Model the fold of this input.
Amino acid sequence: MSNTTESKAYQRSVNAARRCHECNEEALGRCPDCHMGFCQQHFPKQQHSPCAEKQMKLAQTQVCYLCGTQVYPDQWSLSKTAHYVDQSNCHGCGRYICDDLHTQSKDEDVVISREGLRGHRYQYINRYCDMCSPFRRVGGLRGVTRILVGIGTVAAGVFFYLHP
Done:
């Protein structure tokens, strides 16, 4: 008798599916910002309450740093396991940048996350502005700054080690 109750409890824990935070349907992916599970309809930022409210508050600051036009960070799902995330900011310097005029180049990072027996593919769109595009292999202006700080730290360490 105890063996059957244990197996039923095990089946319930294995078959338990994540539920959408908004509509209580089966959740297909997690939002990269708020980390809650959402179905395909509620995965976009404008469709679920934590991120939609945050985006409404930041609407005045989400403008292209070059021309001042409004940018719209977005995320969407093409299928149950493929999700796209576009933050609309330069991956090199972190400032918001418009898609039409000032995005010099785009790359995509693919992250596959395993959740139980199912895997999800999140494709992050990385934009680069005119200043960061030549340095995109090292991470834009932030990457160049990190490299210069590392070289300066090593040079200062060697100088103070060798200096009497």
Notes: The chain is about 30% helix and 25% strand. The longest helix spans residues 140-162.
